[in-house]
Design brief:
The complex is a heterodimer of chains A (about 110) and B (about 110).
Chain A lengths: L2 E5 L2 E5 L4 E8 L3 E9 L4 E7 L6 E3 L2 E6 L4 E6 L8 E9 L7 E3 L3 E6 L1
Parallel strand pairs in A: 2-11
Antiparallel strand pairs in A: 1-3, 3-8, 4-5, 4-9, 6-7, 7-8, 9-10, 9-11
Chain B lengths: L3 E4 L2 E4 L5 E7 L6 E6 L5 E7 L6 E2 L7 E3 L5 E6 L8 E8 L6 E3 L3 E5 L1
Classes of the chains: A mainly beta (about 110), B mainly beta (about 110).
Chain lengths: ~110, ~110
């Protein structure tokens, strides 16, 4: 059974801090890892990583995948209160055409002013 | 372009009652999914569909049924609701040529 584990489960920081969120995975025939941000409602897509060692960046957010050690990190620099959310990572296997994602439980990030 | 919409947004049921949650997407996506989200549990896949007329079980399918009679709609049914089905339900559809899933706003269901 595929498994995705995120750590920490929750984190409280002050505005301006840099945070690193972790995601480790055990996914059969792993294909890709995706990061989502969930505020009050629906998760919204951040990144998809398929190749090891290649950083994806979007503004203050960046993410990298290590396929040898089976983990990914999401970095947020100069955090703002608007970054407060649950961050979810999900693994995708390459089995068949089902295109299913296995989600972790998420990291709740709280950024205080 | 409304994206993925879900009806209703909130619902309270008594144990044993039935209901249907409707998911609609106007992006012509083939793949659609139903998830439930419980505190501290992340998103768990209930059922999914790879195209009109097809459905398949996910991780937690018991107590739920689904139908995909039209490409744009994916229905999730609870035949006899139980308190354990109290949750937030999200529908999603897959963006073509990627693994990205686009989520609806969710339905908060309480079963008393």
């Amino acid at each position: 059974e595929d498994k995705v584990v995120q750590s920490p489960l929750s984190l409280v920081v002050h505005e301006g801090d840099t945070v690193t969120l972790n995601c480790s995975y055990e996914v059969t025939n792993f294909r890709s890892l995706l990061w989502y941000k969930q505020e009050k409602k629906a998760p919204t897509f951040l990144f998809m990583l398929t190749s090891s060692g290649i950083e994806k960046k979007s503004g203050r957010l960046s993410s990298i995948l290590d396929k040898k050690e089976l983990f990914s990190i999401l970095n947020i620099t100069a955090t703002q209160t608007g970054d407060s959310a649950v961050y979810l990572c999900a693994g995708k296997n390459s089995g068949g055409s089902n295109y299913k994602l296995t989600f972790g439980k998420g990291t709740l990030l709280t950024v205080n002013p | 372009n409304a994206g993925v919409t879900q009806t209703p947004k909130f619902r309270v049921l008594k144990t044993g009652q039935s209901m249907t949650l409707l998911c609609a997407q106007d992006m012509n996506h083939e793949y659609m999914y139903w998830y439930r989200q419980d505190p501290g549990m992340g998103l768990r896949l209930i059922h999914y569909s790879v195209g009109e007329g097809t459905t398949a079980k996910g991780e937690v399918p018991d107590g739920y049924n689904v139908s995909r009679l039209k490409k744009q709609n994916f229905l999730l049914g609870l035949e006899s609701a139980a308190p354990s089905q109290t949750s937030v339900y999200f529908c999603a559809s897959k963006v073509p040529d990627t693994y990205e899933q686009y989520f609806g706003p969710g339905t908060r269901l309480t079963v008393t």
